Amino acid sequence: MADEQSVQQQTNQATDEVITAPAEKRLDLPEAASKDLTWEAGGQRIDYTATAAHLDVRTDTGSLIGKMFSLSYVAKPEGENADRPVTFCYNGGPGSSSVPVNLGGIGPRRVATDGTAHLSLPARVEDNPHTLLRQSDLVFLDALGTGYSAIAEGVDPKTVWGVDGDADAFARAIVAWLTANHRWGSPVYLFGESYGTIRNAVLMRVLGEKSVPVRGVVMLSAIFDWVQTLPGEDLYFLGMLPTFAATARYFGRAGKGTDEVQWFEDAMDFTERFYAPALLRGDRLPAREKASVARRISKLIGLPAEQIERCNLRVDLDTFRRSLLADEGLVTGRLDMRFTSVAPLPVQGSTSFFAAEDPADDAVEGVWHAAFRAHLDEIGFAGAPTYLVSNYSKVGVAWNWTHEEPGTEEPATAPNVTYDIAVAMKRNPTMRLLILGGRYDAATTYWNVVHDMSCLFLPPALKERVSYRLYGCGHMAYVDVPTLEAMGADLAEFYAL
Fold first, then answer.
1. By mean pLDDT, which of 70-84, 168-182, 201-215 is the weakest?
2. What residue spans carry the Polar residues bias annotation (predicted)?
3. Which residue(s) pair with 45 in the sheet?
């Protein structure tokens, strides 16, 4: 602990050195705005106050790092809420605002969806019958450099655009909110999606080091070990196979007549018992065995065995997305592989272009943004003309992936934040962890999460405090109404523990 505190003090000092005194005066942002609203669904009613405001993110010596935009929903009457949980929520990217998880998912209002259909304006906004507001007050935070969050003039973005700097900034914003709202007696929960789960993992440790006990952490569409994203890593291909199998079954290209749950479990089992050993042998795998494994994979993922064999049993995401429905002129989604769009023209062969062309994202993000801006108008918050729903082109591209993994004393450029999870849970054995995933999520594959957590060798008492839920959805679980209903019930159970 002492060594980590020393490292943190050095980080604080370095941060102070890049901040100039006049910077705070030049950071001109709108005043906070609040409005009393009412949520009603299923015969229940919650009166709450919605507040849009900026939180000061400051160093230990008081210098301004930036102002983090927050949108909070606090149930009334406020005087009786001292022991009501408060959950800090965010998306990932890195470079994403919190709009999707709010207006799309667990906020008191959501944009109504229609399966995998593309949404259009005007948005149909409804009181969310499965909102987490039923169990907890909610604070949605936008990372610095996204949404309406701003980095102070004179502050190097590198200090906050990275694994460790980002978690430190969020910890300071959470402390600021708890202080400003007199909520130090409230149980604290964290809810992160996608990169927000990496943030969660580091943040649950960092908050503990700042003497902020965390009651529970929800990981939606998680990724913990960044190694799986590196080119040529077999962990990548192992994680993809069950997701490919689920997708092939969904489109009728494999597993016809099988049960969705059992088909995925069988693919998970095949991955560990047969696929992983085959990949580990590389070109030492005899040709006959290679051909046999290719045929078995073909039956799972719906691509020709010959194509799989030519890929040396390693089918990447782009290849699968382009190939599965090629005979229909379609490509599948990435965030949610159930979504489809017309295949790009042959001249549009850019890999990076294709990776960013995601029908699952295109179908919902624009309408979510419009509904969010209308929501801010209702609250009376006069934001700037541009709200950065996603700023990956600046934030994500510049992200510093180096992470000081606890207990290793060595910076890792491809971090594995499960070590942060283990340290946080060992220090605070009263904490609970809920991991949620989707079978059709090719951005953060479920097999990898289960594998990464299993490699922590947690003692039984701590393992019992980790729960897993898997749904028939993609990355943004809340797009799917049946999943949203199931997730709402699982969250209610989790918060009741």
1. 70-84
2. 1-15
3. 40
Please give the mean pLDDT across all residues of the chain. 92
Does the predicted TM-score (pTM) go above 0.90? yes
User: How far, in Å, CA of 469 to CA of 279, rounded?
Assistant: 28
Rounded to 10 degrees, what is the CA torsion of 26, 12, 201, 365? Answer: 10
Domains, the chain, ordered by start? 2-227+364-496 (3.40.50.1820), 242-362 (no CATH)
Rounded average pLDDT over 194-204 = 98
CA nearest 238: which of 337, 320, 314?
314
**Is pLDDT above 90 for 357?**
no
pLDDT of residue 3 exceeding 80: no
Mean pLDDT of 182-202: 97
Tokens of 35: 């409005």
Q: Cα(203)–Cα(168) distance, rounded to whole angstroms?
A: 7
Burial readout 201-240 (b: 16 or more C-beta within 10 A, e: otherwise): bbbbbbbbbeebebbbbbbbbbbbbbbbeeeeebbbbbbb
The CB density around residue 253, as the number of other CB atoms within 10 Å, is 17
